[in-house]
């Protein structure tokens, strides 16, 4: 079976799944948004050390992949909120065994 991920074809579902969270900040963004919906500035504060360019790119990728939602409010000043989608929640659930494995291996 051939899987399509962002216009790239792969016959490996592992590659497709890990490709969704392969950039440095994506797993942290998903974990933070699993706890609460946040505005851009609050999310940036929670991710100490991330640049605006990198954060914007990661948020765009995660939104395009359907893992987070972006809600813009028609108010002045403009307000945008990011939240985890049900698809993002299931991805985090699927990553839990991998995270547990990493914790165990890190303790060796």
Write the layout of secondary structure elements.
Blueprint: E1 3-5, E2 8-10, H1 13-19, H2 26-33, E3 38-39, H3 40-46, H4 52-64, E4 68-73, E5 79-84, H5 86-106
Antiparallel strand pairs: 1-2, 3-5, 4-5
In helices, the fraction of residues equals 40-55%
Shape: globular
Q: Name the CATH homologous superfamily.
A: Winged helix-like DNA-binding domain superfamily/Winged helix DNA-binding domain
CATH C-level category? Mainly Alpha
What value does the average pLDDT take?
Answer: 88
- What fold name goes in the CATH topology slot? Arc Repressor Mutant, subunit A
What letter string, H or E per element, gives the SSE order?
Answer: EEHHEHHEEH
Q: Tell me the β content.
A: 15-25%
Number of strands: 5
Biggest sheet record: 3 strands, antiparallel
Straight-line N-to-C gap: 37 Å
Annotated CATH architecture: Orthogonal Bundle
The radius of gyration over CA amounts to 15 Å
Structural class: alpha+beta
Number of helices: 5
Number of domains: 1
The low-confidence runs, each spanning 5 or more residues with pLDDT under 50, are: none
Largest sheet, spatial ordering of strands? 3-5-4
Record keyword descriptors for this entry.
108 residues; alpha+beta; Arc Repressor Mutant, subunit A; three-stranded antiparallel beta sheet; two-stranded antiparallel ribbon; 5 helices; 5 strands; globular
Task: Please tell me about this protein's structure.
Keywords: DNA-binding, Transcription, Transcription regulation. The chain is of the alpha+beta class. The chain has five helices and five strands. The chain has helices at residues 13-19, 26-33, 40-46, 52-64, 86-106; strands at 3-5, 8-10, 38-39, 68-73, 79-84. It has a three-stranded antiparallel sheet with strand order 3-5-4. The chain has a two-stranded antiparallel sheet with strand order 1-2. A hairpin with a 5-residue loop joins strand 4 and strand 5. The protein starts with a strand and ends with a helix. The model has no long low-confidence stretch (mean pLDDT 88).
């Amino acid at each position: 079976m051939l899987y399509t991920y962002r216009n790239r074809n792969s016959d490996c579902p592992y590659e497709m799944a890990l490709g969704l969270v392969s950039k440095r900040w994506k797993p942290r963004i998903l974990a933070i948004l699993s706890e609460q919906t946040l505005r851009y500035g609050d999310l940036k504060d929670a991710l100490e050390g991330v640049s605006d360019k990198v954060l914007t790119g990661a948020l765009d990728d995660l939104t395009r992949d359907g893992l987070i939602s972006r809600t813009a409010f028609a108010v002045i000043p403009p307000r945008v909120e990011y939240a985890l989608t049900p698809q993002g929640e299931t991805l985090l659930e699927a990553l839990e065994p991998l995270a547990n494995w990493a914790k165990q291996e890190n303790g060796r």
